[in-house]
Amino acid sequence: MKITEYTARELSAAIRGGDMTVPEAVSGVLTEIRAKDKEVHAYVTVNEDDAMRQAENVQKRIEAGELTGPLAGVPVAVKDNICTNGLKTTCSSRMLGNFVPPYDAEAVTRMRQAGMVVFGKTNMDEFAMGSTTETSFFGPTKNPWNEEHVPGGSSGGSCAAVAAGEAVIAVGSDTGGSIRQPSSYCGVTGMKPTYGTVSRYGLIAYGSSLDQIGPVAKDVTDCALLLETIAGHDRKDSTSIARKDTDFSERLSAASEADLAGMRIGLPRDYYGDGLDEEVRKVMEDAAAMLRTRGAVVEPCDLGLVKYAIPAYYIIACAEASSNLERFDGVKYGYRAEDYEGLHDMYRKTRSQGFGPEVRRRIMLGSFVLSSGYYDAYYLKALRTKALIKAEFDKVFRDYDLILAPAAPTAAPKIGTSLQDPLKMYLSDIYTVSVNLAGLPGMTVPAGLTRDGLPVGAQLIGDCFAEEKIFRAALQLEKERGAFGRPAIFVKGA
Ligand code: GLN
Fold it and tell me: At 251, which helix (H) or strand (E)?
């Protein structure tokens, strides 16, 4: 079997069963990257030598019986805003273009402990700000299904890598949709867990009250396995939660065909109104029908305040970003301007040269809404709106187990079209950002294709800590849908 054919759990089982070695698996993935990444550009950094050294080490530990877990030996691609000890972590920014972290993010530590091999860093929108992976300082990633289109963002590299068969599995981060939206555009499965489930230690902060790391995979079961690998309480992140229910894959394997009998799934009316592309609407209707076939009750529901989600999100995210990005001043990290006169000139030039236009725009917006004259009018109002949005979700979850929503209003747009109008790009986050504002879990499962052959994902949203319900419904949706297919580039290569 070719490396691209395996799910992560199948690959690990083959390795643990002696049918393949870890070095073979890792070199298989590296070969795919060499063959395809000039076209796709999913990666910013790949360290082949180090990857092979790790692979040999993990192989020995598997043979010695030290690593027995379900993802042991599996190579994993990591979004480039997640710190990896000794491996460059750039946030796809000139500012961190030469930054080599001296430590691992907690999620990375946990993946290494599980015997996964961290070999490369995936492209993203600069500092995770964007919805297309076009704001990367290193150039855009292409959508493996059609290279004229974006992969979505900001975790576009992670999603494109999995879609193209350049990774078996990956991690991304989601502040306002950055896992769920590119998963939809690339036809892969991705989850943003409940806020606090995965430690943010070592995740380079964008909007700290919204950011979560999560899995990007070929299917629901792989997502559950990777999420339980990286989840867990961490004293190094004060917002991390000690959950006792993170044995997601075990619960999922107990799932039966009758799992969704009587499960109530709401379709928020305001999500299916104007602005939703007709082809996406059709895929969503099909997804609802598949869930009904499996026994769920799927019906329209009312979710209030939908139109306030985007303004509240962009005010809060930019406010936090402007504060978080203050640390990049040319003194402590990364880039420093070459010619300057005095300290203030060094700061000014470093930050104007080191950050791209989208990041600068957001720092300015964030500084404005936090400034003394406008703090009450914008920032405080946005925080109050955030609390009200959470209360609206609470109301829905009194009557429904889950919400079924699109992940984006359209399939993947063409490269070059979104950046011309930033406001329009922000508006396309309508179905994802409120999940982050309310701290909820959400997952995208590939559900259908447009006439032009671009994937469209269906998003399942649950109450806080309701990942298990999401996984169960997602698994039945996946089974009812059947094989989703792969982009042509997936089978191409070596
Ligand atoms: N598109 C959203 C933004 O630009 C979400 C990004 C993210 O989730 N990191 O802020």
Answer: helix 248-253
